[in-house]
Amino acid sequence: MKNRILNKLFLVPLAALMIVGCEPLDLAPENQFTDSNYWTSIENASTVLNTAYSQMQNSNYFFYNEGLSDNAYNGRGDVAGVASIAAGIYDPSLARLKDEWNSRYAGIKTCNLLLQNIDRVSTSDVETIERFKAEARFLRAFQHFQLTTWFGNIPLLDHDPSLEEATSITRTSHAQVVEFVLNELDDIIEILPTNSQYAPQDRGRVTSGAALALKARVLLYEERWDEVVEATEQLMNGQYGDYSLFNSYSGIFLPQNEYNSEDILSIQYVPQDRMWGEFFDMAPLSVGARLNALAPTQELVDSYLMLNGHKINDQDSGYDEQNPYVNRDPRLTGTVVYHLYDWENEDGTSSTIYIKPGTFPGDDAPDEYVPGSSASPTGYYTRKYFDPQHLSSLQSGLNLMLIRYADVLLMYAEAKNELGQLDSSVWDITIGALRERAGFTDALALNFDSSLNQAQLRDVVRNERRSEFAMEGLRIFDIRRWKIAEDVLNGWAHGAQYGIESQDNGYIRANLRTFDPGKHYLWPIPRDERLINSNLTQNPGW
Prior knowledge:
The protein is mainly alpha-helical and 542 residues long. The chain is built from 20 helices and 10 strands.
């Protein structure tokens, strides 16, 4: 798929089809695409499908959604609206709301156009056409799921609407949208190939495993625990593909390990042709970044366990506040850059990252925390997904994983715990396996603690998700579905303990957040959409 799902060039023939196809002509001109002559080859249909893939998700949302949560802070600008949303100072006119709505419905439109027209292609085999349909149905289901997760009740579009329909359609209930998504996924799972059945040039296309994993995620968000267990067990048993934990946590996110055993669904990128560049504003300045616009928080750093399995505030943890990054969960080092971080360079050498003010042994300390500067406003930078093979301005063609096998294991563990069934056998193949892969060796961290009750195990599972998936864009969805956003998103987001401009025991006060549970669990329907269509009702509190 690396050489097939590329860039915005794919949008050109589709746009031509959508616009020219509306012309009231009896005969199709031979020098341009129209609705009557476009659907003549599987190659043209493939172009439309590739466009739908390119609309699935973008790197901006992938990374900056972390800034919506307590994991990170968008300290420069209002990238993807996350600074406004995190601070609770947005309204229905915020551009992010309109962009999310429009881009996802654009993706749905692309899928509907393909589904309504691909049967007109007479030059391809039935198997290929049915697979293309299944891929498009997956992408359409994915877009509907994202929309209903943010907005609740939304217009459900199972066909391409007329202009009259589009300006008068009403919202479908969240429950109905969810059932539509689940039914679509059930229908296509048996049609789609497994990951091992695709040819190398088609890697990255939707698989039966991806459809089942998305189904599990939808069920997880709906707290349908028995069904989560059923879906995840099918993946864990190898029934719908060959998946396993990759042998190195930090290695999962390196370009030489793309399409590794853990990758279930990814956004596809290609060096030179379709790339992303968010690390230009996320990495340490001393390794080539321009500035910092997305910084991990102290709250995220504090969530990582000690190597003995204890939280840092436990009496027996051994945590030293003056030496806070020692003997911690190795995933911290794989994710967050902290003061005196040993940064591995592209050529195999290493360099030390100096962030705490006044510690750099020289004249130039670009990463040093200075209030109001281009450096990190929290004293932390990001390492996970840094591409050592990057081009200029830290541009990367590295794929970004939307669902990986670790998520399947933690969905399974969470569902089993909610059913009161998280025992040592479940622990060993989920949390125990993840911690062993991360680099834990202490038995207290690796072994199941039978003294923990269900509520305590729930806390363990939730914290494990945070440590495993930090800076991968999932935390905001977790705290929303757990209904703990008002607990973790009200008050200050903090930075490192540098003792500057702080009233909180020397920890930087980076950003004051507000989350109103009476309105913020659902985003408002964008203002401009309601101006176009008065039948679109508004969410509570907006």
